[in-house]
Amino acid sequence: MSEATLSPLPASARAGVLTYLAISALVFVLMMALGLLMRIGQADWLWMPPDIFYQVMTAHGAGMVGISGLAGSAVMWYFLRRYVDLTVGILWTNLALFLLGVVLILGGIFLGGFGGAWTFLFPLPSHGMGAWGNAGAACYLLGLMSIGVGFLLLYLDVARAIIGKYGSLANGLGWPHLFGRGEGEPAPPTVVASTMVLIINTAGITAGAVVLVLILVNLFVPTFAVDALLTKNLTYFFGHVFINATIYQAVIAVYEILPTYTKRAWPSSRVFLAAWTASTIMVMSVYPHHLLMDFVMPTWALILGQVISYMSGIPILIVTAYNALTNIYRSGMRWDIVSGLLFLSIFGWGVGIIPAIIDATIAVNNVMHNTMWVPGHVHTYLIVGLVAMLFGFMYHVAGQNGTTKMIDKVAFWVYAAAGMAFSFMFLLSGYVSIPRRFAEHLPEWVEYSATSSIFAVLVVLAAAVFAVRFLTSLKSARMA
Amino acid sequence: MIQESIMLVTVVLMAVVTGVFVFIAVNAGKESVDYGPVQAKAFGIRTALFWVVIVAGVLITVITTLDLPYAATRGDVAEGAVKVQVEGRQWLWNLSQDSVAADETVLFEVTAGDVNHGLGVYGPNMRLLGQTQAMPGYVNSLQLTLREPGTYKLLCLEYCGTAHHAMMSNFEVTAHPEHAAAANTQGRDGA
After folding, report:
1. In this structure, what CATH number is given to the domain that contains residue A348?
2. Chain B interface, best mutation among A53, A266, A296, A346, by max B CB count within 10 A
3. What are phi and psi of A161, to 5 degrees?
4. What are A241-291's pLDDT values in tens digits?
5. A2 within a domain of the structure (yes/no)
6. N or C of chain A: less Cβ packing under 10 Å?
7. Which residues of B touch A438 (CB under 8 A)?
């Protein structure tokens, strides 16, 4: 039941996955460049009008989250189709809706002037104060809606395929083996991870759609009253789930590729299944840790946010990362750009959640929330974790296993070192209480942004090397 | 300051994780050994690690939730606290008063008149002392005892539009009258 079918990849599916990845590679570099622009603006090396800075910030946030979702879904789709029958037409439909969404978002931001941040916290979209109007805000929100609809279709297709093959989502999560003596082999890691992702992202995107509709109606009918705390809950539930799901999809690349290097199996053990079921619940229930400074929230929900944040470290560090390290230890594994990036990605994920978990402590959040500490941990597990994972997958798809060139080696070490240093500068900035999302920094803060900008340049250059190497290797792409 | 402790714990834990990864990376390419014994030993260590993490997590949770910043919002206000009504608007803070005496407990009753804001109270050294969200339709109460005289800053910590970064107000903490009198007396005695 769990064996991969390994049916030949249809040409349209191959083209679809490669298109997802090619777009992702380009957009990652572009969005990193926007991030660099913001840092050099804060460093006073480049003067940017605040409205432009906040437009760039909105594009950087929405762009990074969106493209991480697209690239992550490509990883999941590519490997999952080895086990279940996915619909190629849905893969392309998602891409079309994604691109439509991108056009609307870019139009809303750079033509409509929308600079309400990717989190579009209600009622900010209707309060542009002359920087943007309802048209720009609506365009941006409709763009998000289009992207959400595309992903929802994709996950519904994933659900259909998994239920068709395994009988139920419970079987997809391996519950018969987790809670009883299930017959045969449990669902393989790729199916378990995909089931988890489809569950959480269906819930997350639906919540996102609800809040988008509420805000859109309020934009044009202001008498349609919407509660600020309710929309904040919905927004953070959606945002937290969606960005987390990106790495839970991408980690499938580690499960599938790393064992081919170590020659050691990575089956769905009972601990593995327990970890993924726990993560399914925790990713959906931990979001109140974004609301720890909303004192009017129920105390129990806020304490729950802290407790579940602590617990969510267990499946990541003590199961996924620990299993990866066990699998690698004295395996005789050969290092190349693929295994190197995948190893780095697990490190980035594991080390990045430490400041995140610490920040979820209410007493800590009291002095760290919305300071640079937050982008500090976010960038650690996105740059060094998720993006490294995705570039590792791209090199694998491009057939670069075992053929690491000097330029790849240089780019790898520059990316790893500069990525950590760049992220750590955010943490250091949070430590001295520099707020996040400030277009202009006070003189005593500027040196932090300046140092950070240097590391950012290196990260962008290294990522550009990865992207170019992938794009120029597309013809030799090896896809099963 | 609490920030020093946070940074220290973070750096130590990140260093431990980094050390483990470096150890594995160094040993990854060595001659392959049978996976069974490696797994058995590793999973034994993991079980112990799991219980250490659980016990540590419970202890830390209990200790850190004994004193939460939510009490004032639930009505548990310190006796004699000076109430300061704060309303955030794009892009200024409306304050019912902008100064208090040192060592007084201040109750910031925080709301917003338009969009979400975040009230961050910065000390004279520009380090964040505490914060709460300012939300339309809600009042969050932040209780702080400001001990050091000087000019404090109130910054907006929730992105609120084009001039978000400029939403700063001064909040003066003057020397406590009794302390000032005592200092004057000491000064005269010394003279």
Report:
1. 1.20.210.10
2. A296
3. -70, -40
4. 999 999 999 999 999 999 999 999 999 999 999 999 999 999 999 999 999
5. no
6. C
7. 164-165
User: Complex ipTM above 0.85?
Assistant: yes
Residue B105 β-bridge partners: B145
Q: In three state form, how does the secondary structure of chain A look?
A: CCCCCCCCCCHHHHHHHHHHHHHHHHHHHHHHHHHHHHHHHHCCCCCCCHHHHHHHHHHHHHHHHHHHHHHHHHHHHHHHCCCCCCCHHHHHHHHHHHHHHHHHHHHHHHHCCCCCCCCCCCCHHHCCCCCCCHHHHHHHHHHHHHHHHHHHHHHHHHHHHHHHHHCCHHHHCCHHHHHCCCCCCCCCHHHHHHHHHHHHHHHHHHHHHHHHHHHHHHHHCCCCCCCHHHHHHHHHHHHHHHHHHHHHHHHHHHHHHHHHHHCCCCCCCHHHHHHHHHHHHHHHHCHHHHCCCCCCCCHHHHHHHHHHHHHHHHHHHHHHHHHHHHHHCCCCCCCCHHHHHHHHHHHHHHHHHHHHHHHCCHHHHHHHCCECHHHHHHHHHHHHHHHHHHHHHHHHHCCCCCCCCHHHHHHHHHHHHHHHHHHHHHHHHHHCCCECCCCCCCHHHHHHHHHHHHHHHHHHHHHHHHHHHHHCCHHHCCCC
Which residue of A215, A230, A286, A433 is the best one to mutate when testing the B interface, meaning the one whose CB has the most B CBs within 10 A? A433
Q: Which domains does chain B have, with CATH numbers?
A: 2-25+34-64 (no CATH), 77-181 (2.60.40.420)
Indicate the angle between helix axes A134-166 and A189-220, nearest 10 degrees: 150
Contact B28 A330 (CB under 8 A): yes
Domain of A336 in residue numbering reads as: 11-476
- Classify residue A1: in a domain, yes or no: no
Q: Domains in chain A: how many in total?
A: 1
Task: Tell me whether residue A4 is in a domain.
Answer: no
Are B164 and A437 inside 8 Å of each other by CB? yes
Test B18 with A351 for CB contact under 8 angstroms.
Answer: yes
* CA dist., res. A43 & res. A443, Å (int): 9
Residue ranges for chain B with pLDDT beneath 70: 179-191
Q: Chain B within 8 Å of A230 (Cβ-Cβ)?
A: no
pLDDT single digits (tens) B56-81: 999 999 999 999 999 999 999 999 99
Residues 237-276 of A with CB under 8 A from B: 263-264, 271
Q: Closest Cα partner for B69 from A278, A473, A292, A151?
A: A292
